[in-house]
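Weekly structure sync, notes
Attendees: PL (lead), two postdocs, one rotation student
Agenda item 3: pending single-chain targets
PL asked that the sequence for the first pending target be pasted directly into the notes so everyone works from the same version. It is reproduced below exactly as submitted, 100 residues in total.
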Amino acid sequence: MPAKKRAIKSDLKRVERHRISASEYDDAPEITDEMLGRAQIVKGGKVVQRGRPPLGDQPKTAITLRLDKTVLAAYRATGLGWQSRINADLAKTAKKLKAS
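Predicted structure, written out during the meeting:
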């Protein structure tokens, strides 16, 4: 922690005491669904896409799969993207099965 903290250049006590009046509410436009539909999330100067990424030509299907605890723990230990790695390994096996 730095030895000297920077002072905030605002009067926080005055800000905390302020109560929003009815006229201040009237000045603000009402947010519509159309406005929210056009909204963009920006992080680090770049627009962040919302929702799932495009599926492309091979959409995936959500299923329930029962795996041994040790198998699941091993994949999770590899970090983010472990589900994609399971999919890649299963795709390799499926290719081998198809070839035989």
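Discussion points:
- The radius of gyration is 26 Å.
- The mean pLDDT is 85.
Action: rotation student to compare against the earlier draft before next sync.
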